[in-house]
Batch of 2 targets.
Target 1
Amino acid sequence: MPLVPLPDLMLEPLVRNALLEDLGRAGDVTTGAMIATHLRWPGALVARQPGVVAGLDLARLAFRMMDPAITFDVEIPDGNFAKLGSTIARVHGPARGILSAERTALNYLCHLSGIATATHALVEAVKPHKARICCTRKTTPGLRMIEKYAVRAGGGANHRFGLDDAVLIKDNHISSAGSLHAAVRHAREAVGHLMKIELEVDTLAQVAEAVSLPIDAIMFDNMDPVTIKKAVDLVAGRFITEASGRISVDTVSAVAATGVDVISVGWITHSAPILDIGLDAAK
Amino acid sequence: MPLVPLPDLMLEPLVRNALLEDLGRAGDVTTGAMIATHLRWPGALVARQPGVVAGLDLARLAFRMMDPAITFDVEIPDGNFAKLGSTIARVHGPARGILSAERTALNYLCHLSGIATATHALVEAVKPHKARICCTRKTTPGLRMIEKYAVRAGGGANHRFGLDDAVLIKDNHISSAGSLHAAVRHAREAVGHLMKIELEVDTLAQVAEAVSLPIDAIMFDNMDPVTIKKAVDLVAGRFITEASGRISVDTVSAVAATGVDVISVGWITHSAPILDIGLDAAK
Amino acid sequence: MPLVPLPDLMLEPLVRNALLEDLGRAGDVTTGAMIATHLRWPGALVARQPGVVAGLDLARLAFRMMDPAITFDVEIPDGNFAKLGSTIARVHGPARGILSAERTALNYLCHLSGIATATHALVEAVKPHKARICCTRKTTPGLRMIEKYAVRAGGGANHRFGLDDAVLIKDNHISSAGSLHAAVRHAREAVGHLMKIELEVDTLAQVAEAVSLPIDAIMFDNMDPVTIKKAVDLVAGRFITEASGRISVDTVSAVAATGVDVISVGWITHSAPILDIGLDAAK
Amino acid sequence: MPLVPLPDLMLEPLVRNALLEDLGRAGDVTTGAMIATHLRWPGALVARQPGVVAGLDLARLAFRMMDPAITFDVEIPDGNFAKLGSTIARVHGPARGILSAERTALNYLCHLSGIATATHALVEAVKPHKARICCTRKTTPGLRMIEKYAVRAGGGANHRFGLDDAVLIKDNHISSAGSLHAAVRHAREAVGHLMKIELEVDTLAQVAEAVSLPIDAIMFDNMDPVTIKKAVDLVAGRFITEASGRISVDTVSAVAATGVDVISVGWITHSAPILDIGLDAAK
Amino acid sequence: MPLVPLPDLMLEPLVRNALLEDLGRAGDVTTGAMIATHLRWPGALVARQPGVVAGLDLARLAFRMMDPAITFDVEIPDGNFAKLGSTIARVHGPARGILSAERTALNYLCHLSGIATATHALVEAVKPHKARICCTRKTTPGLRMIEKYAVRAGGGANHRFGLDDAVLIKDNHISSAGSLHAAVRHAREAVGHLMKIELEVDTLAQVAEAVSLPIDAIMFDNMDPVTIKKAVDLVAGRFITEASGRISVDTVSAVAATGVDVISVGWITHSAPILDIGLDAAK
Amino acid sequence: MPLVPLPDLMLEPLVRNALLEDLGRAGDVTTGAMIATHLRWPGALVARQPGVVAGLDLARLAFRMMDPAITFDVEIPDGNFAKLGSTIARVHGPARGILSAERTALNYLCHLSGIATATHALVEAVKPHKARICCTRKTTPGLRMIEKYAVRAGGGANHRFGLDDAVLIKDNHISSAGSLHAAVRHAREAVGHLMKIELEVDTLAQVAEAVSLPIDAIMFDNMDPVTIKKAVDLVAGRFITEASGRISVDTVSAVAATGVDVISVGWITHSAPILDIGLDAAK
């Protein structure tokens, strides 16, 4: 599964907003006061922790939108693992622009690489099994597009991108509809032929009821691995199975061993620590 | 230090953007298909972990901008500690709107409460000492304004808000200016009388050189507590002292014991896990 | 399938933009010069042609955003048929605001009702059959969200909302991938478990090849009804079948008679004439 | 009357918005999964129907904003007639970008060329006469600027661009002002010396009353050609005469034969079908 | 000529932008730290200089958008003369919001009232004559809409609002077209029947040449009153005459005495000093 | 103090907005109708008054954003004095673009150069003394960033950029807090270590009370030079002193002679007349 970059067109508004947030109303006063206009620098983005890289296009845009004269050369592309101390990318150009854009570039790169690295740890942990690691809608407001991209960079897959691109029927919907059956029927009538319907269930009894329904996927919410195994067996390949709920690097392998197709994890987007990457003067 | 809310005017563009990101091009298809228009619900935002609350104005706006008929009543205001299981706020109104706004409201509230809670842990840890806990510019791109607010909610203080509201002289600036002295002189000439100048130093030799310079603050970067103590003594109250660099909840007390005025910590904004808060059907 | 409204939050930016486009840099100079401030009017939006209504929320917002004192009462809601001369909605309030917003309100309402009416004609034409009428991505740039809504109002269903919410494999993709099989395999690896994959084919030979592939839907492009019938039989219910290509009100019934599941039609969004609706002084 | 292009600066925000509407939150997943990064293509925009071209600048921007490496060479410029099967423009460059921008480029080009073609049909139909064909404010919300441009491309002229750039006195204004005379006097007092005043009338009696008023133009609303002829004669060249109201390609010649100066037609912007233009692999 | 207000819809984006510019990333820190939440104040906007008021809608929106609980009551509406010390409007409500919005409200009000007052001085100075005072396109970038409104508030009239709503043929255009005659012919062909054409001339010879051309207005650029008088006589009422170029309050009366219809003055928008208005605690 | 330019990234949104404000919905109709596409021109921005230049980056962007083929070469950079008749910059390129951007470029350049020139006059007037000339928050709404830049170009310094980057305690705050002492204490608790606190006082009694408070600066509001002198003596260098209130070019020297550190002047941003700069055909 090769990683597909997002077009610059989708990233530029985000980067512009972030740069302007940092430049405020007077720009980089420190750099303006002290760094000569003509000064040019080579710099290197260096991994201060090992991990999977994500966000280089945003970093590149941060430097280039600050000053188009800055060049940006990638050594370890998004989706690849950077060892401790390795150079991820090189920048070269006017020192003023490099310094002024540095923090914004790193804030994106460290945040997204943190998500990719957390995802990757889960992907590695389930490797003997077929289960794919998947994110949720628990993302940082305004950054969903790039955080879901970082999950892909880490080897994970994406769940719904929003409330509008798939149906996910939860307990509140079921109780309002009156029954699993009625809820699924309402959904099927409401959506077009290219939208999937997933049903979230809490109990094996619900799984047993669900197996005859025209759904595309079923989510087992907060079940232990033993129960998930029974649920997977009940479904018997009729539709895609997903396990969800407080799954960590330590417990994910046991979940994957149940044979479930997808394991969705919220913390890879909402609570992954950054990957520490810094800008060093290049040798 | 009472916590001052940000005006809705500053928050509305953020919340609108986040809601639209989730609604996409078709809105909440699941809720539309299954939840009756007339259905009204009471709901409660409940702490699933103990911690300090921050972001209730954003949560309120998420619900109210989705449907002005939703009421939102705060029980534990921003800046206060919520015990496990306690109700932080109550929502009441059209079920469709509550369900469609739920994820956006929680994404803001959990993220900012996570930052406030992390800040609060550090603030508590340094309590016998005078040191204030302070954030950095290592924030999530586009969210600096509200992340800095969350730091205040957790009892911390704010560092620079951007490149433009204070001078922070780092090694690159010094080397370009030629000397500490020249760098500070350039800064003093460049900025108005309401902008402060802080100098970042790595060694005690630099501290000794700095004590005679017209600066407002000095940052000791990546020094151990013993060295920080010596640096604080050298400065002898001439200007504000700040310690920075990889300081954790475990080590912060030793740093504070040096007598330093400010301890700045990047991870409270870039790597704090969320505080888990959920929306329950209210009793 | 009840029609689900889009939240005002999603519509307001569109309506604001359209009103400002019309107000320009000096506002409504004619109304300002001649209509007294205190004058209040009742008005009625009246169908000058029979058809299906769509876009009343946009019309309401146009009047209300121009002047919050204007009331707007719907008599024939979106998705319902308005007979010639029937009153669709009533406005009442300051005459200045009603006149200044009139054109924008009508431009939305007539355009979307035109799409709903065209869709409805096709839906009626296929009624004895199971086929659903579906739109395409051939929409007016910037208006896709509301044009797809108008299709739903007319009783139709929606195809993809964009390039990002489903895979649609066309001839160019197949030739680049090397084979139908390779193309589908690449797609399956690339997307998450909630994204569907549809394959567009031109010949029965391709259909025969496709039946063993793990796809969710197949589109028969520009086939005549006899060929579509054979294709539907070949697929034999393995996945959803869709017919596409220059299908008119006159020919749609024959296509539906083939047993195809979905009939997609571009002209309902890109070439439907408006439904003529006017604002009359109310009696 | 040479056709004057709109500066890219005016078009870029529209094209950006349309591209992002299509790219959604994940970009073009099909193309990303199947089209090799290095693949380059020549393509041709080909007229699948004969008609007048309009919108090439928007099509060019769609491709170039998606990928600046795409070249775009025009063969039949805006305002010219494309015969069936003729190549309107050629694109060359990265296949991914061409495919991702294709639909947006065509949606603009087909829509605007449809307007230009409809306008052109009317212009041709009135050719022996002096009457100019003119559009109205019945445009697609948000697209007025480019739809009015398309009317110019088709050989037509533009009416008001908004409520602010000319006075158009209608029945409601007259009744509020009390008389034709009072309405015109109010208008004359209200506006600057570079804004024109047009009066809309329904009857010959009104025309007779209007001839002595200081107006710049008069619109005969929904009059038959015989009545229009009388009205034109009454005006006797004192100011510009305009005929309006349900004028089709079949009836326009008779209207023009009355000697009226301007014939305004709403349907060329609100109900013209697209001109079918497709993107073919170039030979 | 009653002054017509601009709808709030047109003003809100400007006011939001200005408030956010002042609130920055932390809001009003002084007020937040010192003013109690519950404190309510009455305040009065008081004229510290005599002059014509303009901009009260913007001031009202500044207070109301900061806090909807603030009431705003106008005593001296836009377009009226405020004597020294008179109360123009009263505000009442939460002190925090009043203080935070004060500067933005006053910046708009003082700037626009300054323009209205300058315009009014010219209008008074030409009173025995028929000449109208008119602004130019020399406005503050981004504020043209409201500065042209302020000119109207001061009793003046508006020239073109932009490059697009009237033709103004200057020396460069004439030299490119080849002759006055050719320039006017090109213009007449290019524009619709509701757009006026004005010709700018420098010499009486040009005026003599212009009198036979189909233009709507003529501008005498930088002519002295004696020459203007001759030019006006040459035109003899064929079209509107305008004088322009470095006309002050002292010289405007002599220009008006020539019988010219319009006198356009750039400095009323680009160089008028503010009218000093302050916010006092109300008695 | 070398003048530091603002990055293009900060200026582009302003310039785009201003150009679009002028281009409206049809672009530059005069230029489009009369100036040949191929015509290229050299032009010169010439000082029609002597003064200090500011805003060349905005002028350059106006031309370049209208047409990237236009070159812009600076002869007298921002912050330098242009003698009457001197060429400030040269433009060369397509005549259409130059003419269409001319007014926007000049509106920025004349406005900001006017501010720089006014500032410079004050700076020159206080030259024998140490006092720095400083602006206020009385700026044109939406233009604060560039007006504060223009003050720097004129040799002045900047006060607060907004309500958020420094504390300025005024009479209202003091009365709400209860005392000078309480107000300052509240402020000190509320803000981080990089934010300064300034106290505004009206009387020598207040100055005497303030000298023992932990503030960074004190503003003497509307005091005469004799009183200011006493106030400066009372402060005795404990913190920065600032004089404010109706200070003109004529009176500023006397104020500076008191030994005050900073003299802040509102009129340099809110009431400075433009510096007249025009675009001439270059020789």
Target 2
Amino acid sequence: MSPPLWIAAWALLLHGCAAGRAPQAPSTRNDIRDCSADPPYLPPTATNTTARLAVLRDILRTHGVHAYIVPSTDAHMSEYISERDARLGWLTGFTGSAGTAVVTRDKAALWTDSRYWTQAERELDCNWELQRTTSIESIGMWILKVVPAEGNVSLDPFLFSIDTWNSYSRALHGSSRTLLPLETNLVDQGWGDQRPPPSSSEIYSLPAEFTGSSWQEKVAGIRQRMEQHVRRPTAVLLSGLEETAWLFNLRGDDIPYNPVFYSYTLLTDTTISLFVEQSRLSVQARQSLRSGCPGPLCVELQEYGQVSAHLRRYAQGNVTVWLGTEYTTYGLYAIIPQEKLLEESYSPVMMAKAVKNAHEQEMLRAAHVRDAVAVIQYLLWLENTVPQGQVDEFSGAQRIDAFRWAQEHSRGPSFESISASGLNAALAHYSPSNGSSRTLSAREMYLFDTGGQYLDGTTDITRTVHWGEPTPLQKEAYTRVLMGNIDLSRLVFPSNTAGRTVESFARRALWDVGLNYGHGTGHGIGNFLSVHEWPVGFQSNNVPLEAGMFTSIEPGYYQDGEFGIRIEDVALVVEAQTEHQSGEKPFLTFEVVSLVPYDRNLIDLSLLSPEQIRYLNSYYERIRAHVGPELRRQRLEAAYVWLQESTEPFPVSSAGTAGTAAGLLALASLLSVLLSGLGA
Amino acid sequence: MSPPLWIAAWALLLHGCAAGRAPQAPSTRNDIRDCSADPPYLPPTATNTTARLAVLRDILRTHGVHAYIVPSTDAHMSEYISERDARLGWLTGFTGSAGTAVVTRDKAALWTDSRYWTQAERELDCNWELQRTTSIESIGMWILKVVPAEGNVSLDPFLFSIDTWNSYSRALHGSSRTLLPLETNLVDQGWGDQRPPPSSSEIYSLPAEFTGSSWQEKVAGIRQRMEQHVRRPTAVLLSGLEETAWLFNLRGDDIPYNPVFYSYTLLTDTTISLFVEQSRLSVQARQSLRSGCPGPLCVELQEYGQVSAHLRRYAQGNVTVWLGTEYTTYGLYAIIPQEKLLEESYSPVMMAKAVKNAHEQEMLRAAHVRDAVAVIQYLLWLENTVPQGQVDEFSGAQRIDAFRWAQEHSRGPSFESISASGLNAALAHYSPSNGSSRTLSAREMYLFDTGGQYLDGTTDITRTVHWGEPTPLQKEAYTRVLMGNIDLSRLVFPSNTAGRTVESFARRALWDVGLNYGHGTGHGIGNFLSVHEWPVGFQSNNVPLEAGMFTSIEPGYYQDGEFGIRIEDVALVVEAQTEHQSGEKPFLTFEVVSLVPYDRNLIDLSLLSPEQIRYLNSYYERIRAHVGPELRRQRLEAAYVWLQESTEPFPVSSAGTAGTAAGLLALASLLSVLLSGLGA
């Protein structure tokens, strides 16, 4: 799956590749605004923000602020946010997942990337300028133009990463405008009682069978990392919601698709402080956390809002606080004096969570077997119903969600299902909505990128299918995407290799004929946590690959206005068996744990090498061995038959050696003629 | 070729891989020092530094300094340095190319990487601790241990990069020790009149036929980049010696193997200041530089030592100075107020120089044809003389240097020739010396990594050969190194791809069987300039590949204590012909311009794919077409015959399809028997 946070690079690439092809607004369209018309034209999808802006501007004046910057994220740098944190959406009407708004006393502008330009023109009213870029340099230059010298440019420091804060600081440096952090959020003041209340649902302990180790073991492990670190930190500060959820084996539902809850943790060498709405903890959860009290394994429960004050007090001592800069806001970071900081990109909890232990690996494998059942049921259902023209993208998405819900331990989808037919699949980030949904057809390709949350694991898989006659380009592109998926999946590489140095193997088959895709090649994934779990993956800010990590592998190809292809599997990094071994550690390779066959109708076998076909056949054998019995157990006979047919081994001889094999055949038949002529 | 600057990553990797295998000092060895013996044992290769240290310590006291840091580079961040800049060598006796010394009032220590540990034990006396690491964190911790609180830690800011300075600053931050920059160099004070004088040889203009464009055109191009930059810089500051040499089409010989001269340039929108020892300029050079005076294309000649004062004055105005941080010292950098700086990793001159124009490409191609003649002559000479046991590594190196000198436009080797037989080739950085040189033998592999300076181009090539019976591992490893070289050379990839994302293609064939190499895969190269020309290459700090760039491609394999393999070619990035094209720009691939065949004796053809063999055959065709006529022109008939034999096409059918081909053959012969039996 390929949404917000990690798609930023994708958007940039696409933008780079397709410059000039940006969706422009012809005046005849009625789905987008036209602010140059008289009177201005607004589509029904636009939000009237005049009153909201007036309220916010009054508040700006009260605080002596000349420009206020509003981001799209929350105080935990979450990829997905709750309704309560959708400040950008409330203020602007724009509902895309990434953007930045700046409001001055008489102007308002929104910056977003190319994925969202059309959507923004549909949702913004004419109070807003749309800026078709996301560079902070550009935001800074706009601010310098509209804010008078000596003016105050303000923002909520608890909603900005350290990096982003520094970029704004650089952009305004020496300009005589002041970058003014305000701890009270001005949008929240304007939003007032219309702002959704905080979640009050229960925060619960995961049953022991669904955890890799007890929270006490995890805490001990982190404390060991602290002791072993050369800087000898006295505490670890956790801001990422997954970090606290993973550490204490707790889950909640504060954020759609992500079973996490609002919280911070300060884990010191002798104490544990969990900042959370205490009343929401289940009795069991509270008992578990308090079972070691008093003592170093006693969790002190503190109010969520107390984290800053607590940290400020703690930082007065002779301490060193270890934190991951990628998930810490500038607001929290700035509380700690520089010399008491131990900064790394990711906290030790993120690093520990990234390497799954044997039980976590088993759970993720098991979740993928049940997930494969749901996906196979969906593929079979599509085969039977698409030809009747009764399925559209939206009803399809509902159907796959329903198949997943029916599986054991299911907790629903792990992200909003991407279900895209024909040209819609060429949009990197398409999700259908009820009412504007394309009907699936045997004349078009169909791409679905979906995943599930299960108590034992999180899944994410993309398959692309065609039920009719694909064009030669569709078949070639699909086959080359598949070759890329295979080439990366079967790669053998040294321990500690960075993902970014091997992801091109997923592209080479496309590159060979001048094709490519504009997004990343994969991301980490959790055990009943985030579908995009950093820091594992193939991008430049991902950490080196180690045995026990899980990552998606998802090359694709997108033909603007025509079709889109993506083939995505989740794979576990495992030790490889090699004849030799350079270095101290075994070499690594991938074990693909997604277990759903590819569309035979779209594979041009003549492009594959014998090694690729052999790999494919052995993968299909594993699918049969693992998913077949589960289908039978669930008494899904039709799906079982479908699976057997779909995983028939491919003939190896038809690859590469085509010419020689043909020669062999011709000779053999000539021989048989001769032999029969001889009466042999 | 794979020495100092860019080998840092190599050393780290090797260290990572071979931890624990560091050469230890058994007390029975007499080639290294033994400071625990009584009296301490020093080999004859060690230098007595007691007097030098005493002098330096007196100077330290005079300046109120408690520790002084001495680096291995010069004021231009050069990879190679002149004798006059070999401060580290004079002070310590250690002659390796990378290291850092710290001297306090009663201690002295040297930090260097694993390539140099044994060499350091041979060259240091017992005044010195050897620290087997190069991390600045470790140097900082040592300093904190031995320097009292409130002490001064000093260094010459004109010998440290901005990055390195910042690292020391961080390491001492909050420690109550002061990092004190001293513009007068304390080692130079101690060295006194024993220090070699500055070079006085002539600085000359390259003849027009050997330049890609006039210096006036180059200056105009850089000024255009300044105008087009969003920050509108008013000046570009050049510290790298190659930068000034390239910009003005001037050359000198201040540094071994590198035809450059000590200089700085400040190019503003209206003026040009060249800081250089004026009396050294040839009449022609001076005329060329002054031909546009007065005016914006007039070069004002300033004394080399005036650069700081001039820059300080310039920086007082309303200016913005553009510089590349990789080649600028902290000393110069700190002169410019932060808000007047435009910092990028590489200056616009480095970026312009990296992309060769059509004439520069032609020159580099032509230099490689003549260079191939020298290398082929050497290979033939080795074949004839090695069996008699009369060649050793040192005399071999002399011989290849001589073959190069005999070629037109030759200006000698482009680096110290690496000539390594048997186990010596397993050392990444081996160069033979007269007296300690291994005899070449038909029973061992031999690796030579050499290059030439020609007026039209710089070359760099590595071939590995075996004149007898290689072991199965040698043959397999050589073939897989070759496969890696081929796979990267024939790769098709999108424009603007970073080298680091594709360099693994040079490793995969090795990885497949658990082998690898611990160094980078290639580096840029100049037109009669540096053999390691940044910022082109495959490492993480290299810039994206563009058509017109040249880079080496040099995978290898090293078996500790046994043998070493490297196959290095120089390749030009060119546009590829692809069936499709994603994005706006054509895809790219490489054209290998090194034109010397590989050792057939070491190739296991059965490992190669048909595509690899076809590539090899077409490369050999190009060698014949380009080098054959040149050999004839030079009347080198024996070499011509050798070339024809060595470039015979390989049979494609013997690869991959072995099984099928064998079947075909068997059938065909059966058929012929039958036919002859029939009297056909």
